Amino acid sequence: MVLSISLVLLLGIGVFLLWKTGYQRILPGIVVCLFGFFLANTGLAPTITGAVSSVAGWISSL
Hints:
Largest sheet: none
Order of helices and strands: HHH
Helix content: over 70%
Number of strands: 0
Oligomer: single chain
């Protein structure tokens, strides 16, 4: 749970910075957010969560 909140916060900051610098526009950002929202409701969500947790564990072991 702590990992997902931290990851959401980190990704949110990244999107905000991309938006402020002009590299990310609003409409494509909304489309990407909706894609992620609907992807989380598919059967692929546990696999993605496991992969992200695995990479985070690998990074923390460095």
